[in-house]
Hints:
Belongs to the bacterial ring-hydroxylating dioxygenase alpha subunit family. By secondary structure, the protein is an alpha+beta fold. It has 2 domains: 40-147, Rieske Iron-sulfur Protein, CATH 2.102.10.10; 157-270 and 305-430, Naphthalene 1,2-dioxygenase Alpha Subunit, Chain A, domain 1 (Alpha-Beta Complex). The protein contains 16 helices and 21 strands. It is globular. It starts with a helix and ends with a helix. Fe (ii) ion (FE2) binds next to loops.
Amino acid sequence: xxxxxxxxxxxxxxxxxxxxxxxxxxxxxxxxxxxxxxxxxxxxxxxxxxxxxxxxxxxxxxxxxxxxxxxxxxxxxxxxxxxxxxxxxxxxxxxxxxxxxxxxxxxxxxxxxxxxxxxxxxxxxxxxxxxxxxxxxxxxxxxxxxxxxxxxxxxxxxxxxxxxxxxxxxxxxxxxxxxxxxxxxxxxxxxxxxxxxxxxxxxxxxxxxxxxxxxxxxxxxxxxxxxxxxxxxxxxxxxxxxxxxxxxxxxxxxxxxxxxxxxxxxxxxxxxxxxxxxxxxxxxxxxxxxxxxxxxxxxxxxxxxxxxxxxxxxxxxxxxxxxxxxxxxxxxxxxxxxxxxxxxxxxxxxxxxxxxxxxxxxxxxxxxxxxxxxxxxxxxxxxxxxxxxxxxxxxxxxxxxxxxxxxxxxxxxxxxxxxxxxxxxxxxxxxxxxxxxxxxxxxxxxxxxxx
Length: 451
Ligand code: FES
Ligand SMILES: [Fe+2]
């Protein structure tokens, strides 16, 4: 039996959330339906499918989908399912399928937008409803696909806001990431990392703006970085990025947290005028951007001191170090993180090298930093399965958040505003009485019954 709206609403309070939202498989299944069945979800970057027939597999919640470049140059997103017996048409990963898809089971073929192309021994279907134009013989397309500056999103619902409206204030993070290239374009490069976490997907989003954990959870890496720097007599970039977690609480309090509709947001430092000229890599980068955009704009682009951005349901783009951590729920207690790194077209190679170094040292499976987070996420998952209490606290700086025209802001970077904002969105999605996908399925069922 599906949980009632009253029961779901009671799980989220202004200052806390019931631990069931992290541990109950029934709630996880509803999230797949009501959040991932409606929201725009990042499926990949256009640069991952450069040529006709190139594809990239991914998931929208619990749904396996394929992002593919068709002959018309457009990027399509289709469910990875053959309409014959249901086999997944392509294996997981990236590849090129050529001019069409061919199912590995009985060789039904499909155009690159998923529509039916052909099948062997057509005689056997004579006298049936078989018709290449009959959608029952095609791979099904995801309801809506759109791209923002090359970042492709898909929504399983035919209704709802357009992508730009959905992204709201966090579209500016994608803008800044692209503008760091003198031609305004980026591409996925250098391979991707994957990390399987033994925790619920929402914990990762909450931690992205959890500044109170940095100097505690990451003590081992920033202390080691400081010791190493002292021995070297300097603080190279590799150690500097680990050292940052050791900033005192006063540092984190000065950051600003922006919260937007749909659970999105970002964390921003005060504009950093030194960012453009601080080190040789930045100076070279600044020179290239100055040529492209003029000095003032170049300084503005590099000075935007934005840390993790949250696109709720999709993951976290990072502008300064050019990456996108794609967050994919696998089950109530398993989450796959895929880390994509971007090359800024036209920027010096050293900028890309620095992005790769950041990904290696901070986010990769062999990082000194990420395993600290993965460990505490797992502890939250396990602790919440004990009988030691039912509620998870979101109290910090409650009541001090300021409304803005498009969301909320906290001028204290240690506020738990981002978590409260995420759960406000969660509640909105989860209480939707008739999610479009569910309704469409019901309508189809009703049509069948009356036919
Ligand atoms: S399952 Fe795909 S052709 Fe039979
Ligand atoms: Fe962390």
